[in-house]
Amino acid sequence: MHGDLHARLAGVTRVYPGAGAHPPVHALVPVDLELYKGEFFAIVGPSGCGKSTFLEVLAGLQQPSAGTVTFEGKTVRGEVADGIGVVFQEDASFPWLTVWDNAAFGLRRNGIREAEVRRRVEDALAFMGLKDFARAYPSQLSGGMRQRVCIARTLVLQPRLILLDEPFGALDAQTRLLMGDEVLRLWRRTGATVFLITHALDEAAMLADRIGAMSARPGHFIEIIETRWPRERDSTIVAEPAFGKITGRLWERLRGESLKALGHSAMAPAAAAAE
Amino acid sequence: MTRIGIIRLLVIVAMIGALELACRTGLIDHRVIISPSEMASALANLLASGAITADIERTLGVIIMVIVLSIVLGFAAGLVIHALPRVREALDPFFATYYAVPVFIFYPVLIAIFGLSPMPIVMIGVATAIVAMIIATLNGLDRVPRVLLKVARVHRLGRVATAMKLQLPAAAPYLFTGIKLSVSYGFIAVIAAEFILSPAGLGRDIADAYADFNNRRMYALILFLLIIATIVNAALHALDMRWAERHSGGRP
Amino acid sequence: MTATRRAVDTLVLVIVMLAIWEVLHRMAGSTALPDPVTTMSYFLHLVPSPRFAANAAATLLAFSIALVLAYAIGLAIGVWMGAHRLSGLVGEPILVAIYSLPKITLYPVVLLIFGLGISGKVAFGAMHGILPVALLTMGAIRAIPPVYLRSARTLHLSPWQTIATVLLPAVLPEVFTGLRIGFTVTLLGVLLGEMFASKLGLGAMIMNAMSLAQSEEMMTVAIVLFTFAAIANGVLLWIEHRLHRRV
Questions:
Q1: Which residue among A152, A181, C99, C233 has its CA within the 20 to 30 Å range from the CA of B54?
Q2: Per-residue model confidence as pLDDT tens digits over C61-99
Q3: Domain for residue A1, yes or no?
Q4: Is ipTM strictly over 0.95?
Q5: What pLDDT, in 10s, does the model give residues C175-202?
Q6: Closest in A61, A79, A153 to C150, CB measured
Q7: Which chains pack against B, by 3+ Cβ pairs within 8 A?
Q8: Is C122 exposed, middle or buried (0-12, 13-18, 19+ CB in 10 A)?
């Protein structure tokens, strides 16, 4: 049913040491996860639950406080492994480079021949719909297009595991759905394993093969839901009844966690009246 | 006080202490720099003797006049220019370059015209400080969010009421920046002018003490000016910080 | 259309300023303030003279050395305080406080330490320039979006590559603003130094002319300095706008 194992986190915790009067922050309690080759996995959870920490530990940007992370059989340790690409939440496009140079940026460092660079960049820009903007600067583009530049920059490195940290957080709802279509196209085209973080339940429900619902801090998986969507899918599946069921199930599991994250208990009104 | 504040205090104390030590042990020549404790005692004596009271009054008086004139006239000019967009556009390059050129090179010309009264000093001071206030006023009025003006119209406020109740408070943080700069520039301009040109005032006293090799007196006066300037700037800065909390969006 | 209108407005401004000059001249008399035409002809005869060249060279020399020092020391301090968080937090208010002080009060101290020659002027000029360079460089480094550093790691850049290809371009616009302001205040410091205690240099020329009641010389030298500063600042500002426009 699943493909081969691509990456695994076993017993991973992450504790941020306290500073001064502040106690240490347990961002993740022991988390186990297996990612399979070529699947689309999404994490949903309330703000501050540790989703971004999870991604950064998986990517090798942060060291786990305990437990191991392996990617393609090798332990991930302190640096980003070859074959992993990351698209961050914030706009990471470099304002002093054109769209073209932004996309080519990672390639040029790694000593790839110029002809190959050109081919890959053209390909990626065309795929991301940025061909006409190759000479533009990021400041001239909208937020959504800048994110596409960042995705193109990751694409040209031909990653086998693509990590996306709430890449569409700053965009409006309709644009997000359309960008979801783009990510699905990307996923099918590259055959990579995709790991996406989002706070939007509908986005996770639409995009992923498997969804990890994460609790409030300290983060751990409450449930992993399998969507069983066909590989050839797009945003129109929001019309399917199964979509509503999945989204409903996610909210059922996450509503209490979200309230916790907001600082109320689940019984907030009664508790407040009792004070 | 925060941990960083404590560290900062320690750093400053350490630097003064190091200077003191260097002077006492003779590492630093007594004819070049005297020890901080000596500076302090020299200042205390000087103040107690009343010898410089007249000069203090004169210098501080001139500075205050410069500051008040710059702020009031600068604000008024800013208001007028803001209401005349074409004039503003024409003056734009002028303002952009103003602080790039050493205005005080015209000091001697002003002396030649007005003689050695406090007048040229006041003029130089105002000339230096007023443009900062004008620029700050223009900035502040620019930054009044358009939506506030729409609110004013919804509430049917007239032009004056809109200005007083909405524009002025909204522009206030930027105006305050202008005030801070005017104070700072006013200080600098007046003392520099006194140093180079004036027949009286603290700046001139320092120049004289230097010429007379009177290090104790010179350092005492320098210390006095530095303390006053630091206290005034620090007070304004503290006010600024307090205001910044309330106006967290749109700080200059 | 707007370009010509702007040109006309600037011309009007220049004419107004000349008119004010002429009026002041009438009020003050020739010995105090010469009229524009006389000043112009004096200008044409003074500027090519060897005496002017000697003074201008002296000022230029002192200014260049002071500028290099101000930039080097200012950048070093700015980078250190920008990269080392604690130093930046502790030191910034101290630098800001020094920045707003009337540094002219410290000029005698500078003279006592460095003597009356060119070193005094250079030190005084550099003293002025270090601060804006340091403060703006520090600010620029602290403002680097952390996501740039993370991106550099995901793109497998070495530390040197990260600094050269990501951090440097990211801070360049704001650092350049610091360099431009540093240029202005260093010039200011050097001129002030010359006006107070120097025999050679353009600042000294002005003071000398004042003591000899030579108002045309005063105005001419002042105009030369004024024009130099204005043009230099204009060029730097143009470059700065080009840098900032991309960000």
A1: C99
A2: 999 999 999 999 999 999 999 999 899 999 998 999 998
A3: no
A4: no
A5: 999 999 999 999 999 998 898 878 899 9
A6: A61
A7: C
A8: buried
